[in-house]
């Protein structure tokens, strides 16, 4: 009573219904409601007929005309693109140009609920998966850019995460040479990397070259950001790795884990995998300033800008290891 009808919200209506028509029903779905019919009843697409009563769509007499019409359009586009590719091959153009394939980095497929709301008909997950598979096949065509408008009808734009992150600009030394610094972590290792532009591909890891790592897997992991961005042999990198505990202040009474009290303190040795992972992350973060935003988004999707937060799991009491149990013996 006394509420202005012009400024009444749905919450005010719900409170009024609860007060005027109290219900002791346990299920909330069985209680009285007063909402617009558009929110309660699902939307249905009305049949479209011409003046003579004939349906506009030739798929009207199927159980799901919108779904089957979309599937037909996908196959039709594939046939057109294949015919276009055959004509170019006959002219001698075997390798398609790079800009003829559609780029979908900043978008994603509509979800099952969104696709169901778009078709407004009976639609299950199995048909959703088959439709997405068919669209993926169309996207993988070397000349899929010709069907860009049709493909984007079933995708939604996603704001790139890299565009929301402030990438630091390049810095310049006294010789006017660009450089960038970054820090990366992996397990208990901290890596500080300096990337200098206009280089020749020199690698300095704790005063040594790439042979600092004994295993080929660690070497490939360190050089993967340079290979991915195409900056191999174009920049010089300097890497320093240290233990996480070396960055903290410890007293003589409470030394860090893995050290010995006395003048000859020895720190826990760092594993090569942890050092390679920390260097790769720091190197990837530093290379963001040397490439464009499109390449930064590709690096993010490839996982180069994501820190690996996994650590060694501690041993459990009553077990042989973190997960391994003791061998059970009857006697």
UniProtKB/TrEMBL annotation:
UniProt key word Oxidoreductase: no
Pfam families reported in the protein's UniProt record: Ribosomal_S9
Keywords: Ribonucleoprotein, Ribosomal protein
Domain of life: Eukaryota
Molecular function terms, GO-annotated: RNA binding; structural constituent of ribosome
Gene3D superfamilies recorded: 3.30.230.10
Entry annotated with the keyword Ligase: no
One GO BP: translation
Cellular component GO terms, alphabetical: mitochondrial small ribosomal subunit
Transmembrane portions of the chain: none
PANTHER family per the UniProt record, alphabetical: RIBOSOMAL PROTEIN S9, SMALL RIBOSOMAL SUBUNIT PROTEIN US9M
Family, as annotated: Belongs to the universal ribosomal protein uS9 family.
UniProt-recorded name of the protein: 28S ribosomal protein S9, mitochondrial
Species name: Oppiella nova
Lineage of the species this protein comes from: Eukaryota, Metazoa, Ecdysozoa, Arthropoda, Chelicerata
